[in-house]
Amino acid sequence: MWLALTDGTRTGVTGLLATAAGSPVTEPVDDLDGGRADVVVDFALDGTWYRIRLSSGNADRLRTSLAPYVDAGRHRPDRPGPGSPRTADRLRDHNLEVRRWARVRGYVVSSRGRLPDAVVRAYYAGEGPRESG
User: Fold this and answer.
1) Is the pLDDT of residue 9 over 70?
2) Is the pLDDT confidence value at 132 over 50?
3) What is the pLDDT of residue 46?
4) pLDDT tens column, 65-112
5) In the predicted model, is pLDDT for residue 55 greater than 90?
6) Distance (Å, rounded) from C-alpha 48 to C-alpha 114?
7) What pTM, to 2 d.p., does this model score?
8) How many CB atoms lie within 10 A of CB 30?
9) Where are the domains of the chain?
């Protein structure tokens, strides 16, 4: 008997009971058929990313079935969407720059949290650095 775990692995129930002194032995589960997974495959469709654990055979079948579409399609470089790490990094860097700018000019701003509207308005009203391009 196997017990499926929320992280996609499975372990034998007897293995759980027999390993009180150590960690249970787990193995990844194929999300398609419940067998043993060998690989994790990431793919996107219609702007939504998916991750699936598959056996080598199921991964090969997925790749083979998508091959005509991949061959006919055009590669698109990754573009970060809202909330992506690159977007978050740019926002954080921008907010740090506004905070530095405000402190030099005598504004009182906290090191974290929302920037005061008056500071943001002043920054964009021409007092802050202008972006080139």
Assistant:
1) no
2) no
3) 81
4) 999 998 898 877 666 555 556 777 788 888 898 999 999 989 889 888
5) yes
6) 30
7) 0.44
8) 21
9) 2-72, 85-127
Rounded to whole angstroms, what are the CA distances from 63 to 9, 39, 69, 100, 130? 23, 13, 10, 50, 48
> What is the C-alpha separation between 86 and 88, in angstroms, rounded?
5
CATH topology of domain 85-127: Dihydrolipoamide Transferase (4.10.320)
Closest-CA residue to 102 (of 130, 88, 121): 121
CATH code of 2-72, in short, is 3.30.60.230
Count of alpha carbons within 13 angstroms of residue 115, beta-carbon side: 21
Beta strand residue intervals within 58-124, DSSP E:
none
Which region, left, alpha or beta, applies to residue 34 given φ > 0 means left and ψ of -120 to 50 means alpha?
Answer: left
Q: What is the C-alpha to C-alpha distance for residues 31 and 128, in angstroms, rounded to an integer?
A: 52
